[in-house]
């Protein structure tokens, strides 16, 4: 029996799932997840920790003394951050140099042989296969992401808003290139090199990763993140369109979809901006309104190009002036004084504060709204009434591997585009069915004729007097208008049946008046005693009026003045101060201690409930006993999202 025939390796995406690149992605996801959850900087500054280590140091060996000179590290120093990133920068720069050399060799293979300075580099790269170059690039990228995440976690920086490197797409692209150029196909001195456009699609994200990794060395360099990422993103889009429209070589399919989406977003943003500017110039003569409706939609310098592009593109798709609050209809004129006062009504909006491990990450100051004018409060006038705990995102590792942030923004944009398409389709269908013409017609006026309206009034007035008596309503027999006999309309010649009907109606009216008089006598208010008392207590010199009677019954009323209100306020504050002083005297020392151990003073504030109830030792004990989802305040039992420690100088 012959040797069994082994099946060929699975090509394409199925081969990627069995390759080392996919295994590396799984390992990277696990490592980044553990770094994100375990690596947390201490709350105490470096100077205090270094002083404590010096104070606790005893006579030790030379090795321990040398270690004491190095550790603990000061992560606020740019030199420390640079030293930690030196290994990753070395391997990453080496990978970039290899790909630049491959790009030059793909254009002119004799370039490195003509120049003596570049000849050693060309020979060194020529000996490497594409498989080795792609795998080395993947390992360098993984090392860079691990070191970047580790140092960022040790520094305690907020990495929630930054879009990380898309490692999954980059690994798949490297796998496709390595599978397309196996090492055993070419045995010549200079192996076959990839297409130059394929090399550019690999080199662009690699250069962007190098730049962003260098920007993390200095904190003030982070504001250039958007500028560098925008330059790289726009160059990638321009390269995509050049290859598609002017080059006979096809564009790589691994990044084709991403470039198409970015092109659509840029087109939507450009159309929105052009239409907005054109509308304002033609109607007002100048651009006076924001192009994207709100300044919060504008990208921040610390953001990535893709995140800013998707947010502005989504806002452009949702921009509309024919629906909702953007639909301006005819104005309403009101000259009432009350409306003018309401327009200038003062409204105070308290500030908000976002706090995370690194401290206060964002603060919204309080302001006073006076009509259209907003006055920002500062200093002690800035009351912070809402404190939000902003925890570090634990899905950063997944964001790094799969670029979930990019996908979330893509889904948001697709949903907005779907809603806009539905609105357009509904308007088109309504126009086709003639609904638009019907809505444009003026509303018809319906005239209420006398007989119809009078019949409704008679039905509402023709109510049984007994039912009105039971409901407590006033029953009187003089509700009808008086009509003298000589002004009534003369009767016309009618039949005997009409005369009989008239006699019957007159008899019914007489019975109804008699019944009304009876119920009116029964429903009369018995108020003789209060009226008699009022006459006796009143002044005999003047008659008792209705206003005087109400004053006697309700008691004297005093019109408050500014002085009286101020006196009442002062009296109230004095009473509150005296009661507070008595309460403080009654409070014992236990009221200021921890509610759990009742020994240590309270120095931990729980967020967002703002309860000051724990000491740091009890807080640490509670944190170690259960998971974070089960942490609750010992006073109000609300879930605890974070805490702050009070430092008393």
Write the layout of secondary structure elements.
Elements: H1 12-17, H2 20-38, H3 46-56, H4 62-70, H5 78-107, H6 111-114, H7 119-126, H8 130-155, H9 167-180, H10 196-215, H11 225-246, H12 256-284, H13 305-318, H14 337-343, E1 346-349, E2 351-356, E3 359-364, E4 367-370, E5 373-376, E6 384-389, H15 396-402, H16 404-432, H17 435-440, H18 450-461, H19 465-470, H20 496-522, H21 528-537, H22 546-554, H23 562-586, E7 604-607, E8 611-614, H24 616-625, E9 642-645
Parallel strand pairs: 2-6
Antiparallel strand pairs: 1-4, 2-3, 4-5, 7-8, 7-9
Helix pairs in contact: 2-8, 2-15, 5-7, 5-8, 5-10, 8-9, 10-11, 12-13, 13-16
Biased composition (Acidic residues): 475-509
Region (Disordered): 472-509, 545-564
Protein name: RING-type domain-containing protein
Average pLDDT value?
72
Classify the oligomer: single chain
Known CATH architecture of the domain at 591-649: 2-Layer Sandwich
CATH class membership of the domain at 591-649:
Alpha Beta
Give the name of the CATH superfamily of the domain at 591-649.
Zinc/RING finger domain, C3HC4 (zinc finger)
* Low-confidence segments: 1-11, 331-335, 443-461, 485-495, 497-502
Q: Helix fraction?
A: 55-70%
Strand order of the largest sheet: 1-4-5
């Amino acid at each position: 029996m012959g040797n069994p025939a082994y099946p060929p390796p699975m090509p394409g995406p199925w081969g990627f799932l069995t390759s080392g690149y996919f295994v590396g992605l799984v390992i990277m996801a696990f490592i980044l997840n553990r770094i994100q959850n375990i690596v947390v900087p201490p709350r105490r500054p470096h100077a205090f920790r270094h002083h404590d280590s010096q104070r606790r140091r005893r006579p030790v060996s030379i090795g321990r003394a040398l270690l004491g000179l190095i550790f603990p590290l000061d992560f606020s120093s740019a030199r420390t951050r640079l030293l930690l990133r030196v290994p990753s920068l070395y391997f990453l720069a080496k990978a970039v140099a290899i790909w630049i050399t491959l790009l030059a060799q793909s254009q002119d293979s004799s370039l490195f042989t003509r120049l003596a300075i570049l000849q050693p580099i060309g020979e060194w790269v020529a000996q490497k296969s594409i498989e080795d170059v792609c795998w080395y690039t993947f390992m360098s990228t993984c090392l860079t992401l691990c070191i970047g995440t580790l140092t960022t976690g040790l520094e305690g920086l907020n990495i929630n808003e930054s879009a990380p490197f898309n490692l999954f797409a980059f690994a798949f692209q490297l796998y496709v290139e390595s599978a397309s150029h196996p090492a055993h196909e070419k045995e010549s001195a200079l192996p076959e090199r990839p297409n130059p456009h394929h090399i550019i699609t690999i080199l662009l994200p690699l250069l962007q990763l190098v730049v962003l990794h260098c920007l993390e060395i200095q904190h003030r360099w982070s504001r250039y993140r958007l500028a560098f990422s925008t330059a790289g993103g726009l160059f990638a889009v321009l390269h995509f369109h050049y290859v598609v429209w002017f080059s006979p070589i096809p564009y790589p399919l691994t990044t084709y979809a991403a470039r198409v989406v970015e092109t659509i977003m840029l087109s939507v943003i450009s159309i929105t901006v052009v239409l907005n500017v054109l509308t304002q110039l033609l109607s007002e003569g100048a651009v006076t309104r924001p192009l994207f409706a709100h300044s919060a939609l504008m990208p921040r310098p610390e953001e990535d190009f893709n995140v800013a592009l998707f947010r502005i593109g989504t806002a452009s798709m949702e921009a509309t002036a024919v629906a909702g609050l953007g639909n301006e209809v005819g104005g309403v004129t009101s000259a009432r004084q009350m409306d003018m006062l309401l327009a200038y009504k003062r409204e105070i909006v308290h500030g908000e504060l976002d706090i995370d491990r690194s401290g206060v990450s964002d603060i919204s100051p309080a302001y006073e709204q006076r009509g259209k004018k907003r006055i920002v409060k500062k200093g002690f006038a800035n009351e912070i009434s809402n404190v939000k705990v902003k925890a570090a995102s634990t899905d950063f590792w997944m964001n790094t591997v799969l670029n979930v942030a990019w996908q979330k923004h893509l889904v948001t944009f697709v949903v907005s585009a779907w809603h806009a398409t539905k609105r357009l389709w509904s308007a088109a269908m309504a126009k086709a069915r003639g609904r638009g013409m019907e809505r444009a017609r003026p509303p018809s006026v319906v005239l209420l004729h006398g007989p119809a309206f009078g019949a409704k009034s008679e039905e509402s007035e023709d109510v049984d007097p007994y039912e009105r008596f039971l409901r407590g309503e006033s029953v009187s027999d003089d509700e009808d208008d008086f009509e003298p006999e000589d002004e009534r309309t003369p009767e016309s010649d009618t039949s005997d049946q009409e005369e009989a009907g008239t006699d019957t109606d007159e008899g019914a009216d007489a019975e109804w008046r008699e019944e009304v008089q009876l119920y009116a006598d029964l429903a009369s208010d018995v108020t003789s005693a209060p009226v008699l008392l009022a006459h006796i207590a009143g002044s005999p010199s003047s008659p008792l009026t209705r206003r005087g009677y109400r004053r006697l019954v309700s008691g004297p009323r005093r019109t408050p003045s500014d002085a009286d209100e101020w006196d009442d306020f002062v009296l109230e504050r004095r009473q509150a101060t005296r009661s507070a002083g008595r309460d403080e005297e009654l409070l014992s020392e236990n009221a200021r201690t921890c509610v759990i151990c009742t020994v240590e003073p309270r120095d931990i504030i729980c967020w967002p409930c703002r309860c000051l109830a724990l000491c740091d030792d009890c807080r640490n004990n509670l944190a170690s006993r259960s998971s974070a989802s089960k942490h609750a305040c010992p006073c109000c039992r609300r879930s605890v999202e974070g805490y702050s420690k009070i430092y008393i100088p």
